[in-house]
Amino acid sequence: MRALAEDGAGEAAAQAGRRRRAALWAHGWLALGVLVFALPIWITLVGSTHDAGTIGRGEVPLLPGSHAVENYATAWAEGGGRFRTTAAAAMLWNSALMALLIAAGKIAISLLSAYAVVFFSFPGRMAFFWMIFVTLMLPVEVRIIPTFQVMVDLSLINTMAGLVVPLVASATATLLFRQFFLTIPDEYVEAAKMDGAGPLRFFRDVVVPLSVTNIAALFVILFIYGWNQYLWPLLVVNDRSLETIVVGLSKMIGTGDAQNEWNTIMATAVLAMLPPVAVVVLMQRWFVRGLTETEK
Amino acid sequence: MATLELVGIRKSFGAAGVLHGIDLSVADGEMVVIVGASGCGKSTLLRIVAGLETPTAGRVLIDGRDVTPLEPAERDIAMVFQNYALYPHMSVFDNMAYGLRIRRVPRAEIRRRVEETAALLGISALLDRRPRQLSGGQRQRVAMGRAIVREPRLFLFDEPLSNLDAKLRVQMRAEIRRLQKRLGVTSLFVTHDQIEAMTLGDRLVVMHEGRAAQIATPMEVWARPADTFVAGFIGSPAMNFLAARLAEEGRAAALAAGPVLRFADGPRPGAEGRRLVVGIRPEHVEARAGPEALPLAVDLAEPLGSETVLHGHLPGGESLTARLPGGLAPQAGEVLPLLLPAEALHVFDAETGRRLDPLEGMARR
Ligand SMILES: Nc1ncnc2c1ncn2[C@@H]1O[C@H](COP(=O)(O)OP(=O)(O)OP(=O)(O)O)[C@@H](O)[C@H]1O
Ligand SMILES: [Mg+2]
């Protein structure tokens, strides 16, 4: 009897030990993962606080230097690199405006088109739906030449509109909203009809409020999508004053025939990271809720 | 407050006919309950009245005016849905006020009406809550409130009590009846629950496969069901049906199971030997011996204290249910003599299932 009890205790201890080892193992891997992701960011952050020469000599400092203020001031107000690119302040503004317009435009258009496809029966409804669906297979890169031609014809080259409009139509968001709208019970529509709400009123008073968490989640994703656009802005804008920060950043890095101002470049890179991070942090609460539950 | 008239309402979804010509007129302030088995077209009929569905043929008249081509909003009707359909992102107040806001009722007036209605329903304390924070019964009240506050000409209810537990259902049933009487709003109430139908309705429409099998007061439906479907649908346990033939020049029914039962109220029309169905409610069956007694072989006895429900079969194989006074405790397998009192018999034509009443002028009543 006693032996059995002791056996049991020993068993439990062994089990606890095994569990602790498993936890250590898992945490070890996680820590390694974090390191792999965080190290480049740390190096960038540190690099932005040294003078131009340090990195130029091939050193990779791991501790902050003392030139933070002047590097950031230069990057913010003047830009850097071989040709003195656009100041980061202007580029940040361009990027933010572009990303905001793309996200807002995509959401507005896909909300409306999903609303039409789900709540109305009109001739060719499914045809339209499939047309939207098919554009999923044609990302910007595939249709870039015809799109460029269209923008030239509309004389939208070198304008904010030219930057934003081709990126606004969004099959993904339309599909997402469609799936969500399909879960809205018919009885809401009917109750609204009895209450006397017209289609736009119902859209505004019921459909949009019910979609807020979805909208918030999509906003985060789409803002970052817009912010990270590279190829299209590179093509459609060559006016320095409209340069976006992702494109501008790459232009700061020379081809190797002259010294790169790595300190300014890294400061600009850090600045370029901040707005997406801010959006994620600010919208986090909504974002997570939108991905996991609906307000019903 | 209004009258409602349905004229020859038909509805098909594609090739499938759902309603086959319904005529009904509802008086001002009347509560008419539409009852029938699942799938018989009750909701479809209600939705046609609401304007959510267009009839294939027929007209809907409110106060004598043809509203068939009108949109739901233009008909001035309020509907209480089975799942309540409260907007989840709006407070109780906003849910109730929504219809009024759309109709551009002044703000102060909205507040007054919502608060009055909330007081009437005992939900004043809940006005700031979201539907999610309410119990089923409270949601039910809010859904009613949303209908009442509009002061519509017509109330439509589509099985509003079916999501509540049994006790709450009884309570809300009484409450709906009380409110409807007090407000005097003409109402249509759909249910598949016969108790709800019997207790709520001024009149019932018993629907069967897209037709109105009978339109009458609850007592009339119970006492003189128009056909075998209605007879079997209303009443619990359901009415017994026995095969018979017309005998003694229409004055009696010869049961397939043996005895010849003379009608208490006069002869039925038809040739000698016409095939009949004789109906009798379980509670009218008596456990007595006599020359016309039927021997019931008991299959199952359910003693409920105050009464005993017997299920058994007759020599011919027909099954019969009897509700007898409590205390009687026959065992399964026992054979019991039962009498079918002549006053309690319902006579139906076997072919059509229609009720057969005594010939005019010869009835003794
Ligand atoms: N939109 C529709 N399209 C095709 N068929 C339909 C449609 N709506 C209802 N029906 C059919 O019409 C018939 C009647 O439906 P209805 O909803 O009126 O029944 P009900 O009497 O209300 O039943 P329940 O008690 O189950 O609610 C059913 O057979 C149903 O399948
Ligand atoms: Mg129904």
UniProtKB/TrEMBL annotation, chain A:
Locate the ABC transmembrane type-1 domain: which residues?
A: 92-283
- Superkingdom of the source species: Bacteria
Membrane protein topology class:
Multi-pass membrane protein
Gene3D superfamilies reported for this sequence? MetI-like
Q: Which Pfam families match?
A: BPD_transp_1 (PF00528)
UniProt organism field:
Caldovatus aquaticus
Q: Does the keyword Membrane apply?
A: yes
What family is reported?
A: Belongs to the binding-protein-dependent transport system permease family.
**Keywords of this entry:** Cell inner membrane, Cell membrane, Membrane, Transmembrane, Transmembrane helix, Transport
Q: Upper lineage ranks? A: Bacteria, Pseudomonadati, Pseudomonadota, Alphaproteobacteria, Acetobacterales
Location in the cell reads: Cell inner membrane; Cell membrane
Broad class of the protein's primary localization? membrane
Physiological role = Part of the ABC transporter complex UgpBAEC involved in sn-glycerol-3-phosphate (G3P) import. Probably responsible for the translocation of the substrate across the membrane.
What parts of the sequence cross the membrane?
24-43, 96-120, 127-145, 157-181, 202-227, 265-288
* Keyword check for Membrane: yes
InterPro entries annotated for this entry? Answer: MetI-like, MetI-like_sf
Write down what this protein is called.
Answer: sn-glycerol-3-phosphate transport system permease protein UgpE
The record's note on quaternary structure and interaction partners says: The complex is composed of two ATP-binding proteins (UgpC), two transmembrane proteins (UgpA and UgpE) and a solute-binding protein (UgpB).
Automatic annotation (TrEMBL), chain B:
UniProt entry keywords in alphabetical sequence: ATP-binding, Cell inner membrane, Cell membrane, Membrane, Nucleotide-binding, Sugar transport, Translocase, Transport
Pfam families per UniProt: ABC_tran, TOBE_2
Show where the ABC transporter domain sits.
Answer: 4-234
Q: Has UniProt tagged this entry with the keyword Transferase?
A: no
Question: Which GO terms of the molecular function aspect are on file?
Answer: ATP binding
* NCBIfam families linked to this entry: PRK11650.1
Q: Which PANTHER family does the protein's record reference?
A: MALTODEXTRIN IMPORT ATP-BINDING PROTEIN MSMX, SN-GLYCEROL-3-PHOSPHATE IMPORT ATP-BINDING PROTEIN UGPC
Family of the protein in this entry: Belongs to the ABC transporter superfamily.
Q: What is this protein called?
A: Sn-glycerol-3-phosphate ABC transporter ATP-binding protein UgpC
